[in-house]
Design a protein that fits this description.
By secondary structure, the protein is of the alpha+beta class. It is about 25% helix and about 20% strand. The protein contains 15 helices and 29 strands. The strands form 9 sheets. Strands 12, 13, 14, 15, 17, 19, 20 and 23 form an 8-stranded mixed sheet that branches. A 4-stranded antiparallel sheet has the order 5-6-4-10. The chain has a 3-stranded antiparallel sheet with strand order 1-2-9. Helix 8 (about 250-260) packs across helix 9 and helix 13 crosses helix 15 (about 555-565). The two termini are about 40 Å apart.
Length: about 575
Amino acid sequence: MIAVGKMKTTSVFFFCFVSICNAVIYSALEKGQDLTYWQKEGWIKGSKVEPTKLLQLTFALKQENVGKLEELLLKVSDPASKSYGHYLSVDDITNIVSPTKHAVDVVKTWLSNHHVTDCDLTQNRDFLVCWMPCKTAEELLTGAVFYYFMHDKYSKNVIRSSSQYYIPTYIAEYLDFVGGVHRFPSINFLKTRKEKISTSIPFNSNSVHVGVYPKVLRERYNLTAEDVGSHPDNAQVVAQFLEQYFAPADLSEFMSLFVGSDFVHHTKIDKIIGPNTGRSGIEASLDTQYIMGLGANITTWFWSTAGRHENQEPFLEWILAVGNTTTVPWVHSVSYGDNEDSLSPEYMKRINAEFMKAGTRGLSILFASGDDGAGCKKNKFRPSFPVTSPYVTGVGGTGFVNPFAAGKEFAYEISGGGFSNVFSQPSYQSAKVEKFLNSSGVPSAQYFNKTGRAYPDIAAISRHFWIVNNRIPVPGVAGTSASTPTVAGIISMLNEHRLHNKKPTMGFLNPFLYQNAQALFDVTSGCNEGCLSGDKGFCATTGYDPVSGNGTPNYPELVKAAMKVFA
């Protein structure tokens, strides 16, 4: 939390001027953030930013009634609750959480006193997005010094400050953090990779398959040719960052080569938000082709937040846009994340509030669990965010035990999974997690926080995928960014059934998944990677485990469970 009025030398400054000593107390925001993180991740500091360079900063105004918002989310998301499916509108949520007019006015006056007047207040009235010269930003945020930073895996420079920033304590009372100052784009989170697979057998053989494509996934998860969308209000979306674009020609060719006449499907994205003007990327191609292969014939959006300005925080910009857009798709597939220890608790808690808003509106947000297994830092497992948020659905990765048959699965070693070091274990999963912790083969307690939120929640096949990229069929693509759109498309099909029966959408999925684990295929073998080379992290077992979650989808059983729910 922000230190307000506490006399700590690490977070409070006094300033005295020449003739009269005016004590101005300054407080640090985001004190828990690792300010050397950029060095460890391969960023190189360049020249100082020019004084006149225009920067974009986002001021996160403290919200009201966040506890009430969480309470409402859990009620509308719990199939056992009479309030299940009684979702709120954007305006309803704004009336609950928006800061007081006084708080907004105080922050606006402070900005205006520094000649910052080019600002937009979001629809929810809880973020101020402002533009100002670098010189003004450094005067406003005491201690911040903005530099250009470069990375060999990122095509453009970014502007950030590697030093702590401070603001007057009377202003800190009304802010959670300032965006556009510290957080660097996540370069290494998702390592969508290509693996070698044998192509000695035709990929469309009737008896076996070589590699994974929509027909294989639909066979494994028991979707028939009739399981396609038709409801006009159903929609799904993939979110993309860091200049990941798709090519319409790739999508059309993929559907021609790998779907053909197997089932009714779309060959075009229905709506594009943001830029999609660069060379197509493997990540974006994978996401679009598979959400549309599983959530077939359903309206699909492509939401691109490229971060074209050096000072943008693409992820923050995306979640703000979702929260402030009245009509968005019901299911969001997101293959993005960062190391939990690189982010401040203030920032993560505030992003959690945005996820709560989404769930309370009836949106399902699914995040890939990552491709580094349990992760490792200083001989302890290293969880990732946002998948550690208790208010999103984490998707892990599996592989076929027999790579040529759509049958039993094992937990794939790269599948991200573990326990949060920041967020407590939510009640909807505590019984399942306790059972796992009491099973054999659990890693030593020194490696992880057993009281933290466990992830992922569900899993799906995540290796040996075929895609089309730059008009070329590419085999062997792997990663939880493959399993996430797969699961997202299946959730869209659950929404299809509910919408046709005049029921509300699935919304925040986790309470439903943990209460209906019998509708999933249990994954009982395989482990993700641990700290040492060749070492194991968490292993799959009967029931829930933090590598394959509650299991992988069994579509007909999920439909039955979804349709039994009261709302």
